[in-house]
Design goal:
This protein has six helices and seven strands, in the order ααβαβαββαβαββ. The chain has 193 residues and is α/β, with parallel strands linked by helices.
């Protein structure tokens, strides 16, 4: 990967409309060079691009989305910033095997602002768990339901308690929280052993 430090400020500008600060969140996740990360529902690549910069060419980022327009956006930005360690995948994370990533092959799965858009939450968590290495982590960031004037409709949002229950019934345990600002919550999960 060729990364020009002058591009740093420009990359920050591809952020998430001011509601999330991917740089700040990623620092809390302790992502290291060489890690393999999957960004489920990558959208415009708010997390994908920053993570790719950190994991460097010794690591990899899978950018998965069902929308071609989102994937085209990530592809264009990755090319602009010379990020060659991003693999773009058109996949359906609500189907077992739908991410098209091998079993137990990633260190971290990021689910940022995606669950409220899904119909089958259990399948998304199951697919996350399927591709996770034994010591891997699942990061869930989503809208706080009572922040609705700015976010999605209330009935589509899951509360923190809903997420904890969802994770537990799918074999995950909470191992940490992250500061995601005033409109979102963020939790880190690992596989129950």
């Amino acid at each position: 990967m060729i990364y020009n430090q002058n591009n740093s400020e420009e990359m920050r500008k591809v952020g998430s409309g001011g509601f999330l600060n991917p740089d700040k969140i990623i620092k809390e996740l302790n992502i290291q060079r060489g890690m393999v990360v999957a960004d489920f529902g990558c959208g415009a690549g708010y997390f994908t691009l920053q993570v790719a910069k950190i994991v460097n060419n010794s690591g990899k980022v899978y950018a998965i989305d069902v929308l071609d327009s989102a994937l085209n956006s990530v592809f264009s930005k990755a090319k602009l910033y010379n990020l060659t360690n991003i693999e773009i995948i058109r996949g359906n994370i609500e189907i077992f095997g739908g991410s098209k990533i091998n079993d137990e092959s990633v260190d971290m799965v990021i689910l940022a602002n995606i669950l409220f858009q899904c119909n089958d939450y259990d399948s998304v968590i199951s697919e996350s768990k399927r591709i996770l290495k034994n010591n891997g982590r699942v990061v869930i960031i989503d809208w706080i339901p009572d922040k609705i004037p700015l976010g999605p409709k209330f009935e589509h949002c899951l509360s923190e308690d809903d997420i904890k229950k969802l994770a537990i019934r799918n074999g995950l345990k909470i191992t940490g929280r992250i500061d995601t600002g005033s409109h979102h919550y963020g939790m880190i999960f690992s596989i129950i052993r």
